[in-house]
Amino acid sequence: MGILQTYPHIFRALESNLGNLYNSEIHRCKQEAMDRLTAMGMPNRKMERWRHTSPLPFYASELNPSFSPLHRKHVGIHDFNRKDEINAHKLVFVNGSYQEHLSKVYTEAQGVTICSMNEALTKHSEHITPHLKEICRNPHDGFNLLNLAFFGDGIFIKIPKDTVLERPIHWIFLAADNARFMINPYHQIHCGANSKVQIIKEYQSLDNSELYVNSHCSTFLDQGAHLEFTMIQNETVNGFHHLNNHIVQQKRDSNFKQTAVSLAGRLLRNQVFVRLQEPGANCAIQGLYYGKGDDHVDNRITVKHLSPDCESHQNFKGLLDDKSTAVFNGRIYVEEDAQRTNAFQSNKNIILSDYATVHSQPQLEIYADDVKCSHGATSGQIDQDALFYLVSRGIPLDQAKAVLNYAFIAEITEKISLPTIREHIQELMREKLNYAWDEELTES
Amino acid sequence: MLEIKNLHANVVSKPILKGLNLNIAPGEVHAIMGPNGTGKSTLASTLAGRNGYEVTKGDIVFEGEDLLDMEPDERARAGVFLAFQYPVEIPGVTTINFMKSAINARRKAEGEAAIKASEFMAEMKKNLELVEINQEFMKRSVNVGFSGGEKKRNEIFQMAMLNPKLCILDETDSGLDIDALRVVSEGVNAMRSKERSFLIITHYQRLLDYIQPDFVHVMYNGKIVKSGDKSLAKKLEDKGYDWIKEANA
Ligand SMILES: Nc1ncnc2c1ncn2[C@@H]1O[C@H](COP(=O)(O)OP(=O)(O)O)[C@@H](O)[C@H]1O
Ligand SMILES: [Mg+2]
């Protein structure tokens, strides 16, 4: 049986789990998504967007039909690293479902909502249904519809206007119970006018789980809002396969920064789609990646300048070793009346092995005439002159290579504003790269 | 300290060094002069062990050891230092961390403990004063955004930090204004000692007004064709290189 034929069966099993959402508007959205998916079909490799990244592993994985958000998993507080040194709200998910007993959400200013999507579906459905309908009408692709039809949990964040969140939100996504299936988390983030929010999303696998995560996040920034979103993908075993789809809509003078730190993962696709809807909005989408083995890292960024006086930056740097592959597809679209646009894009790669591959593809569509735009993609070897310079001072060759590789991608981390997060990420990178720079001196 | 015997070396399969001989004893300062493209930098790179510089014939013995048998980092730890003609910019690597690591790499190889913070800071301060560099530069990426003169001073600073036995300076004077030239020369002179030797490669006699060499060699077409004392440098300044070229045509 082809996978498209199996999805409706699994869908019916899920429907019977919907409980008090049965027959709700959300249920009807899901049904519509399922119908549309049946008509539209799932992407295949013949499509341009999937030429360099195969969706097939997702089709081979089983959809989790018994996916029930309230199911309490057998993970204790000591089974994972909650990183309490990062002073933050902790939102912990196991195999895609929210775990209240592992999480800690502090009281913030009045009107702040930080909760699971499962809870939000009953308490805040008026904020959710319109967006589900919108996605249903304009789906990105079959994965988008699949996510809508099957999602159960995720996060829901709503920050009222003029609120600066006291603590960042640390969102920890665990794979456990030797899970081997696909999950479809759905998230929504609303940042009210002039609010300020920091979110860190992190993945950990606790055993030999192999999770296929097809996630969707819709983010809304009102006038003057600031959101910094940092994602750390550092699974040691092949715990996660990601298709992350993030859609961001920005109002006047809002500020969005996303950093994707991809240090390991057999299949990672981070898709970001930003709409700069009003003047003065700006965004910085950046990422670093380090591919080893047969890791596959795909960053697919689209920034649409729909209004004048907006600014966007795309900056990605990567190291590719062994047989790893990196794909970068950066699109800048500037609408006709989006005058005085500044749009910049850069993708730089260092290739460390003869078998690693990079596909880097800028796409510019510019219809306004007063536009400052630049793009550049490079991939090359480690800088031999710099390497010799370090070695000629007595630094062993392997150490010199690690230092140069680290310095190359660490540039991206400089722009992460929270020092604890930045240092945490740099520490992870040093570990990954066997970086042993003698910065520490013994005290006298 | 250094004995180079009948050295032949290729760069990209092209013979550049063609039977070069040179002996440097401890404490001596040797200057090598010669027209552009004659192989001076090739000699420096070959001594430092750069990739792509292939020795086809001859020997180099440094402190009784076969230098050609050593990797570039081992040569550096053994006491060979090359001040580059074109110092390299290294974004993201600060000079201070670079120097700590270089010093500790040598200490580690010699089985010593890492340098103490106070000792390192004192050395650094002293050597920064020697080459008149502001301490702020230490926290910046190596050579990034430095002027030509600052880069050359940074080379001498690193040389002073690493305490080498043999200092090779490849056209450290080129592109320096008179002020920087004085600073660089004073740095070198301060480092002169009975144990430490220098090989100073230069195109012009001007540097040798500041650093008095014990020997001056003229290099042409991949070998040393004439050696003398510092009056030879004066003669080259007055007469140029044509008479050398003619005599060796
Ligand atoms: N990396 C290189 N690749 C190709 N040719 C080189 C390289 N380095 C030096 N050469 C050649 O070797 C010769 C000697 O160069 P060099 O040693 O730089 O001379 P000098 O320092 O005396 O001016 C020149 O003909 C130069 O073109
Ligand atoms: Mg030269």
Describe, in short, the structure shown:
The complex is a heterodimer of chains A (444) and B (249). Chain A is an alpha/beta fold and 444 residues long. Chain A has helices spanning 3-15, 25-40, 56-60, 117-123, 125-137, 142-150, 384-391, 397-413, 419-432, and strands at residues 89-94, 97-98, 113-116, 155-159, 169-175, 180-183, 186-191, 196-205, 210-221, 226-234, 240-250, 255-264, 267-276, 282-291, 296-305, 311-320, 325-334, 341-351, 357-366, 371-380.
Distance between the termini of chain A: 71 Å
Give the second-level CATH assignment, the architecture of chain B: 3-Layer(aba) Sandwich
- The tally of domains of chain A stands at 2
Number of helices of chain B: 9
CATH H-level superfamily title of chain B: P-loop containing nucleotide triphosphate hydrolases
Mean pLDDT of chain A: 91
Q: Please report the two chains with the greatest interface, counting residues with C-beta closer than 8 angstroms to the partner's C-beta.
A: A-B, 31 and 39 residues
Question: Helicity of chain B, in percent?
Answer: 25-40%
The CATH topology of chain B is given as Rossmann fold
Number of helices of chain A: 9
Q: Count the beta strands of chain B.
A: 12
Summing up helix and strand content along with how strands pair, one would put the structural category of chain B as: alpha/beta
Largest sheet of chain A: 10 strands, mixed
Radius of gyration of chain B over alpha carbons?
18 Å
Describe the structure.
The complex is a heterodimer of chains A (444) and B (249). Chain A is α/β, with parallel strands linked by helices and 444 residues long. Chain A folds into two domains: 3-278, no CATH class; 383-444, no CATH class. Chain A has helices spanning 3-15, 25-40, 56-60, 117-123, 125-137, 142-150, 384-391, 397-413, 419-432, and strands at 89-94, 97-98, 113-116, 155-159, 169-175, 180-183, 186-191, 196-205, 210-221, 226-234, 240-250, 255-264, 267-276, 282-291, 296-305, 311-320, 325-334, 341-351, 357-366, 371-380. In chain A, the strands form two sheets. Chain A has a ten-stranded mixed beta sheet with strand order 2-1-5-8-10-12-14-16-18-20, covered by helices on one side. In chain A, strands 3, 4, 6, 7, 9, 11, 13, 15, 17 and 19 form a ten-stranded mixed beta sheet that branches. In chain A, helix 1 packs antiparallel against helix 2 and helix 2 packs parallel to helix 5 (125-137). The termini of chain A are far apart. The relative contact order of chain A is 0.09. The model of chain A has no long low-confidence stretch (mean pLDDT 91). In chain B, helix 5 packs parallel to helix 6 (178-191). Chain B contains nine helices and twelve strands. In chain B, the strands form three sheets. In chain B, strands 6-9-10-3-11-12 form a six-stranded mixed beta sheet, sandwiched between helices. Chain B has a four-stranded antiparallel beta sheet with strand order 2-1-4-5. Chain B has a two-stranded antiparallel sheet with strand order 7-8. In chain B, strand 9 (166-170), helix 6 and strand 10 (197-202) form a beta-alpha-beta unit. Chain B is an alpha/beta fold. Chain B has a single domain, classed as P-loop containing nucleotide triphosphate hydrolases (Rossmann fold). The radius of gyration of chain B is 18 Å and the shape is globular. Chain B has helices spanning 40-48, 72-78, 95-109, 117-131, 148-162, 178-191, 207-210, 230-239, 242-247, and strands spanning 2-11, 14-24, 29-33, 53-62, 65-66, 80-83, 90-94, 141-142, 166-170, 197-202, 215-220, 223-228. Classes of the chains: A alpha/beta (444), B alpha/beta (249). The A-B interface holds A 383-386, 388-397, 399-400, 403-404, 406-408, 410-411, 437-444 and B 48-51, 71-73, 76-77, 81-82, 84, 87-93, 97-98, 100-102, 104-106, 109, 113-120, 142, 158, 162. The complex binds adenosine-5'-diphosphate and magnesium ion (MG). Adenosine-5'-diphosphate binds at residues 11-12, 16, 34, 36-42 of chain B.
